[in-house]
Amino acid sequence: MGLQKKDLLGIRDLTVEEIRLILDSAASMKEIASRDIKKVPALRGKTVINLFYEPSTRTRTSFEIAGKWLSADVINISTSTSSVAKGESLKDTGLTLQAMHPDVVVIRHAVPGAPHLLARLLKASIINAGDGAHEHPTQALLDLFTIRERRPALEGLQVAIVGDILHSRVARSNILAMQKMGMRVRVCGPPTLLPRYVESLGVEKFLRVEPAIADADVIMMLRIQRERMGAGLFPTLREYSKLFGLNADRLKMARPDVLIMHPGPINRGVEIAPEVADGPCSLILDQVENGLAIRMALLFLLAGGQAGNN
Amino acid sequence: MRILIAGGRVIDPANRRDAVLNLLIEGGRIAEVASPGAHPAPAADRVLDARGKIVCPGFVDLHVHLREPGREDMETIATGTRAAARGGFTSVCCMANTSPVNDNQSVTDFIIDRARRDGVVNVFPIGAVTKGMKGEELAEIGELVGAGCIAISDDGKPVMNAELMRRALEYATLFGIPVIQHAEDEHLTGKGVMHEGKVSTELGFKGIPAASEAVIVARDILLAEMTGSHYHVAHVSTAEAVQLVREAKAKGTHVTCEVAPHHFALSDEAVMSFDTNAKMSPPLRSSRHVEGVKAGLRDGTIDAIATDHAPHVIQDKEVEFDYAANGIIGLETAFGLTITTLVEGGVLTLPQAVARLTSDPCRIFRLPKGTLSEGADADVTIVDPTREWVYDVRQSASKARNSPFNGWKLRGQVLATIVGGKVVWELPG
After folding, report:
1. Would you call B201 and A201 a contact, using CB atoms and an 8 Å cutoff?
2. ipTM topping 0.85
3. Dihedral angle computed from the Cα positions of residues A101, A104, A105 and A111, in that order, rounded to the nearest 10 degrees
4. pTM of the full structure
5. Contact across the interface for B319 and A89, Cβ inside 8 Å
6. CA-CA distances (angstroms) from residue A130 to A54, B105, B113, B421?
7. Theoretical Cys-Cys bridge with B139: which of A293, B76, B103, B240, CB 3.0 to 4.6 Å?
8. In this complex, do A195 and B274 lie within 8 Å of one another by their Cβ atoms?
9. CA separation for the pair A81, A137 (Å, rounded)
10. Mean pLDDT by 10 residues, chain B (429 residues)
């Protein structure tokens, strides 16, 4: 059985069975990554285009490597070097790419719904690699995968997501994904960085970090962006770090076996102290590694790869 | 040319008339309104059989964007007034945000000349409050009124400067015209693209809080009280703004307001599909606010239904939601949405709905329209309030296609529109 859909636009559209299928497929893909020669012919003759309207290192590289290990031809388009810089619309860029017959287009864009617009226009499968503060489904899937490696039964786990929830697509996709898998989610951050209606997402809201992390199985720290300071959403990085940063002292209030995650890139010493990021509870590099397996699985499932070729 | 509209139910709120009557039009005016049995039907060049139909004054839209001069690729006075005619509107008031802005009498003259030449319905221009709509200094309001402007507004943008708003309100009392505010605090709105609520939280869009509208309405009501001027809130969209107008009216302040059909027919849920035709300013609000504006219509706090007809070219809507232009076309769907949502929904009776589209807007803006009095201009609309139809935007008389109501099944259809005794629209078949 495969993934019976053309696109991966968001976690919202996935069933629990589909999430399990993706996670299980990723487990077999992870095995390929451990081989000496990391290449299988599963997507030979298939074309994957990375269309990135926002800067990205890890997600773009992750998709590129994932595609290459599956033998797909991977092309990267970043907007500063393409005709987008000449003012071409997303529609026209999409139609132009369509004429080159890609099998998958991976898009990152600053505006929620941009991948959905592309999906309506193109025959190719669209993978949302982040649309504004809306969704980042592959991140949520790799996070689930990473948690599942340590806690095979996801159901009932308590997660605390700490930081800038307002602008975070990682938070939105993870909230949806975790709730679908029966996990409970709390969010914590300064009131100016929590959406006013955040509780409508079915999460518990905490303004103080200590009670939020107290009995959590997983703590997910989010990157705090410097430019939010200019917008008056918090006064200084120093004050933010003091109130919400995860340091060794605060970590003592959490469970000893708590899992610490961060979607990256991290601000060492701001939202997460170096000794925590590099400490034994940290899964930050596991997340990066598992991102490859998740993206391999998705490219394979969406690009119509033949199971026999694997 | 004599036209007899025979046997229809005449709803004429200005004259408190609601009865089966014959309407005779002669020389562009209402010549006679009489009971069918009163005497033999007068001879006419044309007889329109209105049995089983509603005959009412032509609808009057206080808020349209005709885009001419300057953006004739979006709409012209010729096409916009034809869309109006299809929607049963015999008079439209066009906003000043043309290019150039209607902030001086030569632009007003142009609009009036062009409307006379190309238009099929009456066009009443609205002048700008400030020069270039820049919000810095007052436009030559006296000259605008002298040339034919019936109100002033910087619609599309608020007059943010409270002191300037005070002066505009004061100055307008010299001419007895309303100052229409696009009530939105630009700082609270910021880069928001939709209503701040549950849906914006789910979709990750920057939200526009309801307070963005209400704080400006509250401020302006205080200024209207202070200056004794007529303040009119354009396209009211929030429960709080409706409540502020309700309280101000109760105190006797001269405040009026209008609502656009999309603000009672749609909620912010329409954004879930990322349809850029669900993007407008003010934004579609949550169901609590939709109920709030319905309550305002029911108790008369909201005086008029006005479309905010805002044509755009396709390429300005076929883009990412954040980059899409604000607004939708609305002239052809206003009546159907009014019947379907408000009359069928039990918010207004049919005569009340007709009043909100005819006599009420004319009363508040002091326009010599919206009545079927003998001797009045023969602006008449014939409708079937029970007939179902499907809106097909491809058939629109507007140049634009930006409607979220394409494919909607609506109840209540406009059958014929008569302006100054001339039939300007008749539903085929």
Report:
1. yes
2. yes
3. 130
4. 0.94
5. yes
6. 9, 51, 52, 59
7. B103
8. no
9. 26
10. 95 98 96 83 88 98 98 98 98 98 98 98 98 98 98 97 98 98 98 98 98 98 98 98 98 98 98 98 98 98 98 96 97 98 98 98 98 98 98 98 98 98 95
